[in-house]
Fold these 2 entries.
Entry 1:
Amino acid sequence: MTFKFSLKKQKSWSRRLLGIFAALGILCGAGIFAGYVYLAHAIEKRFAGRLWSVPAVVLSDSIMIYPGMPVGLARFEDVLAARGYRLTAAPKPGPGEYSRTKDEIRVFFREFSYPGTELKSREVVLRFQGDRVAGLEESGTSRPYVEVEPVVLARLFGENRESRLLIRLKEVPDHLIKAVVAIEDRRFFEHRGIDWWGIARALWADIMARRIVQGGSTITQQLVKNYFLEPERTLKRKLLEAAMALVLEARYSKENILEMYLNEIYLGQWRSMAIHGIGEAAQVYFGRNVEDLSLGESAVLAGMIQAPNRYSPYRNLELCRERRNVVLQRMRELGFITAEDYEKALSEPLRTAPRPVFSTAAPYYIDLVKAQMEALYSKETLASEGLAVYTAYHPEIAWEAEKAVREGMAELEARHPRLRAEDPTEVLQAALVVVHPKTGALTALVGGRDYAVSTFNRALQAHRQPGSAFKPFVYLSALDQWTPISRIEDAPKVYKVGDTVWTPRNYDGRYRGLVTIQEALTYSLNAATVNLASQIGFEQVVKTARRLGFRSRLDPYPSLALGAFEVTPLELAGAYTALANEGQRPELVTIRKVVTPKGTVLERRHMEMTTVTSASKAYLITQMLQNVVEEGTARGLASLGITFPCAGKTGTTSDYRDSWFVGYTSDLLALVWVGFDDNRSTGLSGATGALRLWARFMKNIRPWIAPQPFAVPPGVVERLVCIESGEPATEGCPNTRSVFFLEERVPVSVCPLHGR
């Protein structure tokens, strides 16, 4: 009886234990299932949204090269170098490379693929004859032109300053995938997120070395750690990492995981910018698209994953080479490459691309683009949604503008030592604005000598008196009543405004009596100009200036005619574009278009023109400004090497505080301002200061412009004028010159000295 009771009691305990274990098992299973569901939901929620924050990228305009263009071989090499192309000794260049002979460049243009622009990879041969492009050939066929890709100018980062160029796995060469797998996770395609053999192997290696020499984390675990978790080294984080790796492998394919990993992985630092992803690293370190990487370059990037900055080819080339060789050795041991491939890659020279230009290029221009973009989009959008921002920036012209300011200012200080200042914040400053008047494209903008010293953008923010650079707008107002040969008096006169009495004085202190309108503008006669403005009416001059685009305060006082009010350099340049563009004032364009990663165009700026004066009047002012260049205050341009057709006007303000020159050809307008920020005297006139920088700049961009004689528009007629009398010539006049008139305002008088 006692035995039966004992047996019954034992069975009862056994059932209870079984029940407890079953309950625990159910609870554990439920817990694991709940954990799985929770983690799967968290992962899928994250992946359902935007995977990465990709900053907006700011791109320059592309450039066209065509036969006959005055671009020599050396200049074209500069174009390639600016875009990260490398010279190779091989007869057949690879993508992103070019080879060179005495008069020929063979370049393999890499594919350029950004939202809104697709340029296919292609090999092009350019032949040169002297300083000109003699011919273009692609695949054995002559081409009328070749489009050269834009330059990446900047990225509009958020606070984390991550730079990333997203790639798809199908674009990644097989040897790069194998290199990464070989050095980071050789059993990646075999395990399910955690590699127990790998952990055991790493542990054994660490024990044998008595230090940490290998890690056991798989590629999946690394992705989880970098993408989802904080970089803390705790047991809890390691367990969570392992759990999420298992869930990730259960929910996504190996290919998905590898693609995410290659886009996420950190690969070093360039200044304050963090380089993330294989696509960005291929561009930064080798100037190549990821699909164009060689085996050796792929091994370099794969080797850098462990310690990106330590193995960076920019920091330690020898250490980088050793690490590359370790990767190649591992690939060889695993049978991923042949012995021949291995030997060839070992002998591959380790050649990096020129450092990226963004973060250093066009800082004043980029500030303008950024301000305009921030007016359209939130900072978060700009920092994360991968927008492509195409601008009107012309790299080659803009870099020459920066160079002209840098070298031109140094030359001015060398010629005039009194201009030098010890304090970098007090040095002589300059601004340079470049516009295509036919389109309004703002191709370059320099706001100061050194952005690192002063971010104050003088082209946009400095309000300075334009001085005589304003006079063309006075003379434009006069064309309704006067002709270029009409006479006005150049004599000192007293003008009274309220209780203020003022007498304008000429630059050289001389007064010439009766002079023609054309002479007054050519020699920038102050007294004659104010006299003319008073006859026109100062209110009328203000109206003309408003039509031309001046927005600053303009008071209808006599001093208005001499530019005694303040404008910005960009404002003045905008007004001149109407003179250079047949009376049509274009809206200045900085941003051409904004495109999303999916190719949707969010913004597109078309040319917008406003008729502000007639083409015939604009032409007459241009003719008179050509006379300024040939005979007047800007005649020094010829001695500075400016021999092509151009028009322009100097400007000098009281006490030589500002030195201006605004000049244009048939296809480009450039404005230069020189002065001190604190408004003290420079001692420079427009001709001795700004004009010299303008000439330096225009000479250096000669390959990128094609100045032609200004076209005569309808409504303008040409007549001979007697040089001695200044009146329409007769057959008896011994010396004559051509003068252009408005069709409706041709003088009917004849030369009084030589009769009919």
Entry 2:
Amino acid sequence: MSQQLSFEGELKVLLKTGKVVLGSRNCIKMLKTGKLKMIIIASTLREDIKDDIIYLAKVSGIPFYEYAGSGWDLGTLTGRPFIVSAIGVEEEGSSKILELGRGG
């Protein structure tokens, strides 16, 4: 019996047990240094920034996941009262969120 991973559930586990950086500028900086294991971007992220992040992730071989919701939705899921357009995963903790990544 296969168990389907829920993005929201895995993100909650990631935030409790792992280590993340929030924001597109911080994520781009961390992508350039190669310290991320995965990147999560909101679907409403500005196209030029989204293209930069996807390009850097592909060059570095880092998987990325495009969340179908907006930056406000991603901010709410992370418990922040502001827009979160990108989340960089430094340590996945006990979550299986890396299995959701694609691209790379």
